[in-house]
Recover the amino acids of this structure.
């Protein structure tokens, strides 16, 4: 699904001119990013998503429907031919950096010293390095070194 379809104008946008607000309107509830996270980790069926998240069936049905309607997930026939499965679209895969950044923020700020938590590792088993946005010149960016500029 194209970016245009996934982000088509909606009269219910919280702030139609702000990409952060639009993104949160699409995936900013408690469960949507966890469904996307689990899809990235290999979940495909309704049952897998429910087992991994513990989400109520009616809420999961709603989130899967919403994520599919907005082009983050697509439904395909499972290899068995009996059931439908959910797979990430390109737009869904593009949320990897968002989930990684949230994970790394949580590792730094959501746990007490020495508290056990999971860690994301690369294919070699090494912890994934912290994400740090950089400008065109390679300098690390932050709120003090960036500004919002309207574009059309």
């Amino acid at each position: 699904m194209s970016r245009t379809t996934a982000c088509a104008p909606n009269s219910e946008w919280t702030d139609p001119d702000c990409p952060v607000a639009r993104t949160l309107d699409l995936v900013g509830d408690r469960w949507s990013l966890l469904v996307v996270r689990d899809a990235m980790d290999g979940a495909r069926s309704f049952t897998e998503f429910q087992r991994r998240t513990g989400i109520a069936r009616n809420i999961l049905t709603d989130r899967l429907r919403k994520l599919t309607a907005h082009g983050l997930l697509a439904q395909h026939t499972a290899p068995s031919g009996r059931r439908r499965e959910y797979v990430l679209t390109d737009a869904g895969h593009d949320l990897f950096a968002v989930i990684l950044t949230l994970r790394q923020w949580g590792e730094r700020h959501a746990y007490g010293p020495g508290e056990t938590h999971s860690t994301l590792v690369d294919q070699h088993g090494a912890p994934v390095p912290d994400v740090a946005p950089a400008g065109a010149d390679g300098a690390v960016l932050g709120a003090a070194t960036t500004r919002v500029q309207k574009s059309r």
